[in-house]
Amino acid sequence: MATFIKSKSSSNSSTGVGYSNGVFLSFRREDTCKNFTDHLCYALVQAGIPTFRDVNELTRGEEISQQLKAIEESRISIVVFSKGYASSTKCLDELAKIMECKNTIGQIVVPVFYDIEPSDIRKQKRSFLEAFKAYEEICKVKMKKVNKWRGALNEASNLFGYALKDMANRYVFSL
């Protein structure tokens, strides 16, 4: 079972009517968890913004229903795209739900491109190309889902966001 970080000030008055979370963070644990995402989450919580972030890794086959519910209850989703993001079906399922919420309930989506170009996502090049080649081989029966992931990636990569380049060679602020 997954556990989550959520700031103490989670009243609906601060997040808007119908929202129990302010921000949902979507990221690939192996790529950004111990640096950028930890610092971002800490800053949001310190600012009093209710923040939902999965702090435990799911085991293979475990449902992400808690994450999907948290996405629906969030006013904003921050998606931290990294080189390995597309290799996680959990991340892709979250992204598909995030983009669905953007289009149906007006959720605000802020992409962060962490050491990756938006065009790599949009055109599905490099690591994104490799991941989708594997999905097409494995998921021949589930091509509808694979195409949904592709569409969500393309739509998200066209949003205004933040590009953090050459992060591997930078000192990460520590608290």
TrEMBL record:
Boundaries of every TIR domain copy: 19-175
UniProt keyword list: NAD
Gene3D superfamilies: Toll/interleukin-1 receptor homology (TIR) domain (3.40.50.10140)
One Pfam family per UniProt: TIR
UniProt superkingdom: Eukaryota
Gene Ontology biological process terms in this record: signal transduction
InterPro entries: TIR_dom (IPR000157), Toll_tir_struct_dom_sf (IPR035897)
Protein name from the UniProt record: TIR domain-containing protein
Lineage: Eukaryota, Viridiplantae, Streptophyta, Embryophyta, Tracheophyta
